[in-house]
Please model this.
Amino acid sequence: VIHPSKDPKVKKYHDAKYCIFHELYEQQVSHRSIMAEALS
Model:
C-alpha cells in the first residue's frame, strides 16, 4: 500500500506541478481555438 507523503515540500511540489498543468491545458485550448478559426 502506498501512503501519501506527509512532507510539506512534496505537497508544495505537486501543487506547483498541478498549477502548471492547468495553465498549459488552458493555453492548449486557446491555441486549438485560434487554429480552428484560422482553418475554417
Notes: The chain has a mean pLDDT of 97. Helices lie at 8-39. Residues 28 and 34 are 10 Å apart (CA to CA).
